[in-house]
Automatic annotation (TrEMBL):
Membrane-crossing segments per the record: none
Species annotation: Rugamonas rivuli
Gene Ontology BP, a term: regulation of DNA-templated transcription initiation
Family: Belongs to the LysR transcriptional regulatory family.
Gene3D superfamilies reported for this sequence: 3.40.190.290, Winged helix-like DNA-binding domain superfamily/Winged helix DNA-binding domain
Domain of life: Bacteria
InterPro entries: LysR_HTH_N, LysR_subst-bd, WH-like_DNA-bd_sf, WH_DNA-bd_sf
PANTHER family: NITROGEN ASSIMILATION REGULATORY PROTEIN NAC, TRANSCRIPTIONAL REGULATORY PROTEIN NAC-RELATED
Protein name in UniProt: LysR family transcriptional regulator
Length: 315
């Protein structure tokens, strides 16, 4: 198996056509077809379905595509690491952010990166936390912001902030009329709209509730912040989230946020890197920048409900 075969295969999938991929790669289509056939023969599976309309990945092709992308990225990172200077880092860095964090962190981080490291191309990808963990393990992202659920031992981690979770509902909902704060037991009596068990805030809420002898009985699972917000505004239920993802709705009065007590709930936001794949100088610079920007946002009260964790160190 050769790197060019991986590049060819990824290009074919990305462009959905052998002919278009051949044009982009400046390779004759018969040669491209031959390399694809050799790759399929070596793997012993069909990677693509061919038709007059183009090509589609088989199930095996979809799996191989993810691995091919990760391998090609690691090769590019290795070349960049050799070439770049520690004093003037350059190259491409991919940082994964959960949906519930990107609203607070993404734009300030992009602005700071452009100002401090103009020769670094910072690529932000917004994903569910479970997906980000898998991408970090495979090397498809260099860094990822995740939540400490006790399952991060496989990564090098740096604590960033402690983020308060609050009960959030439509402004005119009857769940919490006149109440500034609610007990956790009170919040769990409502229909809650939450991500699935493997994503975001859900594991943390389940853990705190279990320790308090409580259970979540009425849950609507939605793994999209945009759809979750629409469901709240449709009065299908309330949620337990940090304030940052619904800040616009809170500021314009469409939603209300209530503190939770007895017990309160928070989550630890951490920056994660692979223990097996070394960081390039550019990725190390972005890692430091994420820590710096997070602390500045907390100090300026522009990351609602978040408190910087002083002296966070990688493990």
């Amino acid at each position: 198996m050769e790197l060019r075969q991986l590049r060819y295969f990824v290009a074919i999938v990305d462009h959905g056509s052998l002919s278009r991929a051949a044009l982009v790669l400046h390779v004759a289509q018969p040669a491209l077809t031959q390399q694809l056939r050799q790759l399929e023969e070596e793997l012993g599976v069909q990677l693509l379905h061919r038709s007059a309309q183009g090509v589609l990945s088989t199930d095996a092709g979809k799996i191989f595509y993810e691995h091919a992308q990760a391998i090609l990225k690691q090769v590019a990172d290795a070349r960049s690491a050799v070439a770049q200077s520690a004093e003037r880092p350059s190259g491409s860095v991919t940082l994964g952010l959960p949906h519930s964090i990107s609203g607070a962190l993404a734009l300030p981080l992009l602005t700071a990166a452009r100002a401090q490291y103009p020769e670094i191309t910072l690529q932000l990808t917004e994903e569910l936390t479970g997906n980000l963990s898998d991408q970090l393990k495979s090397g498809r992202v260099n860094l990822a912001v995740l939540f400490d659920d006790g399952q991060l031992a496989q990564f090098a981690t740096t604590p960033l902030v402690e983020e308060e979770l609050r009960f959030i509902c439509r402004a005119d909902a009857t769940y919490a009329q006149g109440e500034q704060a609610l007990t956790l037991a009170q919040t769990l009596k409502t229909t809650l709209i939450l991500p699935g068990l493997q994503h975001g805030v859900r594991p943390r809420i389940e853990s705190v509730a279990r320790q308090a002898g409580l259970v979540l009985d009425q849950v609507i699972e939605i793994n999209s912040i945009a759809i979750l917000k629409s469901a709240i505004l449709a009065d299908m239920g309330a949620t337990i989230l940090p304030s940052a993802p619904v800040l616009d709705e809170l500021e314009r009065g469409a939603m209300h946020s209530h503190r939770i007590h007895s017990p309160s709930i928070s989550r630890t936001v951490v920056l994660c890197a692979s223990k097996n794949i070394p960081l390039t100088n550019a990725a190390a610079a972005v890692s430091r920048l994420v820590q710096q920007v997070s602390a500045q946002l907390c100090a300026g009260d522009t990351w609602p409900g978040a408190t910087a964790i002083a002296g966070g160190t990688s493990s």
